[in-house]
Amino acid sequence: MRWFRRTLFLGVVMAAAPTAHAQEEPIETRLEKVAGLKPADVRAFFATLRSGLASGNTRAVCALVAYPLPQPSGPVSSAADCAARYDDIFTIAVRRTVGRAQFDELFVAPTAVVFGYGELWFARCQGVACPDGALRITQVNGAGDGTLKPPAGKTLLACAMAGAGGGRWATLTADGDGGAVLRIWMPSAGLHATSPPAILLKSQPVSQPASPRCAFRTHAFTDATTSYTVVSETMCAELDDRIPPMGTVGVVTRATGGAAPDTIWCIQ
Questions:
Q1: What distance in Å separates the CA atoms of residue 263 and residue 161, rounded to the nearest whole number?
Q2: Is the pLDDT reported for residue 55 higher than 50?
Q3: Reading across the β-sheet that carries 155-161, which strands appear in turn?
Q4: Separation of alpha carbons 14 and 19, rounded Å
Q5: Is-contact 183 193, C-beta < 8 A?
Q6: What residues contact residue 104 under an 8 Å CB cut-off, 6+ apart?
Q7: Which domains does the chain have, with CATH numbers?
């Protein structure tokens, strides 16, 4: 029987692992402190957007956009233009991301609030187009080929390590350029460690991924003696005939020198 690496839950902070402090705080606190937004306004926008996309209400969704909206095929100039290009803008990948999103999993940056890896961004609208300062969609990234770059600081993985790396804690954080930072704390660091990690490695963006779907979801890290591979999306890599233990949220492969690689399970 063939098993696949499980999804590394994005933006979810596991209670058993250290993680970026900005994402440990409640979403309401992050919205106010980081983005200067009122949680009630964001909740209302979140609900309206999800309802509009779920029901296919083109007019309602396009009314939430700040124009002009950048798109690979050219800027979207108006609500009428949005309606005409609706399926090209709000692709299945975008709708799926918004539909699966939980309010408290939104990533809050100083300039915007972000769904998923960055499929959709919204912020306080500025200028004459928005005299009321309403929340509006500022970016929609519908590419389903794995080329999307998660926003800097977003937690891609936070877990306890089992198996060969037993007892340690790990976080994987996006750098905003398609790469990521891997931090591993030793057991003595305890929960929610504030001390420097024992291992701190940075990956480069994946330039030519074997699978376009997994372009930014596979990260490779190397230090003087050891290499690590972290896969952060379902189906990106196979685990031949190995059954993940209960509670697995991800897998790290570690190779030292010429020795056979170790499988390190990441668990909640």
A1: 10
A2: yes
A3: 199-202, 180-185, 169-174, 155-161, 262-267, 248-256, 226-231, 218-222
A4: 8
A5: no
A6: 26, 27
A7: 2-20+153-267 (no CATH), 22-140 (3.10.450)
Nearest to 213 by CA among 55, 73, 93: 93
Q: Token digits for 34?
A: 């980081």
SS3 of the chain: helix, strand, coil, percent, to 5: 25, 30, 50
Q: Report pLDDT digits (tens) over 190-240.
A: 555 567 788 888 987 765 555 555 666 778 899 888 898 887 764 565 555
* Residue 238: predicted pLDDT: 56
CA–CA separation, 221 and 133 (whole Å)? 43
Show Cβ contacts of residue 90 under 8 Å, excluding neighbours closer than 6 positions: 53, 61, 140, 142
From the number of C-beta atoms within 10 Å of its C-beta (0-12, 13-18, 19+), residue 7 rates as: middle
The pLDDT assigned to 194 comes to 63
Of all residues in the chain, the percent with pLDDT exceeding 90 is 43
14 pLDDT higher than 50: no
Which residue type does 70 have? Answer: P
Q: What value does the mean pLDDT of the chain take?
A: 80
